[in-house]
């Protein structure tokens, strides 16, 4: 596993170096000839082709899978939210009922210990 990580790091460094060299040399005055412009346009076309292939893969393979998974998880989340809303409603109704029950008891039975504050 360590060897694979080292390979990935080395390939990443080489990739960054290649891109940096490409950007550096594209800005130099001596690389502004017609041949160099053709080289850069060919490289740009090749990069565009790979980019297009990647976008096709995302739209054909990754997007449907992600969409299906997000819909499935969305249903689970929706059910959880509905359950919590029901629990909150029941809890609020119970507390309001207890409050009014306490008021009723204090009116009907004034002076009982549960209706009087502690001294």
Note the main attributes of this structure.
119 residues, 2 helices, rod-shaped, mainly alpha, single chain
Question: Can you walk through the features of this model?
Answer:
The chain is mainly α and 119 residues long. It contains two helices and no strands. The longest helix has 75 residues, at 34-108. It is rod-shaped, with a radius of gyration of 35 Å.
Uncertain segments: none
| Overall body shape | rod-shaped
The radius of gyration computed from the alpha-carbon positions, rounded to a whole number of angstroms, is 35 Å
Overall pLDDT confidence: 78
Structure classification: mainly alpha
Oligomer: single chain
Strand content: under 5%
The largest sheet, given as strand count, sense and whether it forms a barrel, is:
none
The number of helical runs is: 2
Number of strands: 0
Order of helices and strands: HH
Kindly, what is the distance between the CA atoms of the first and last residues, rounded to a whole number of angstroms?
A: 72 Å
Residues in helices, as a percent range: over 70%
């Amino acid at each position: 596993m360590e060897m694979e990580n080292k390979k990935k790091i080395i390939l990443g460094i080489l990739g960054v170096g290649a891109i940096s060299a490409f950007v550096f040399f594209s800005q130099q005055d001596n690389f502004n000839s017609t041949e160099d412009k053709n080289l850069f346009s060919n490289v740009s076309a090749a990069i565009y082709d790979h980019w297009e292939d990647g976008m096709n893969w995302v739209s054909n393979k990754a997007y449907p899978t992600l969409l299906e998974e997000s819909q499935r998880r969305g249903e689970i989340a929706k059910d959880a939210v509905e359950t919590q809303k029901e629990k909150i409603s029941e809890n609020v109704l119970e507390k309001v009922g207890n409050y009014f029950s306490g008021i009723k008891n204090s009116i009907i039975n004034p002076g009982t210990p549960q209706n009087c504050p502690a001294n």
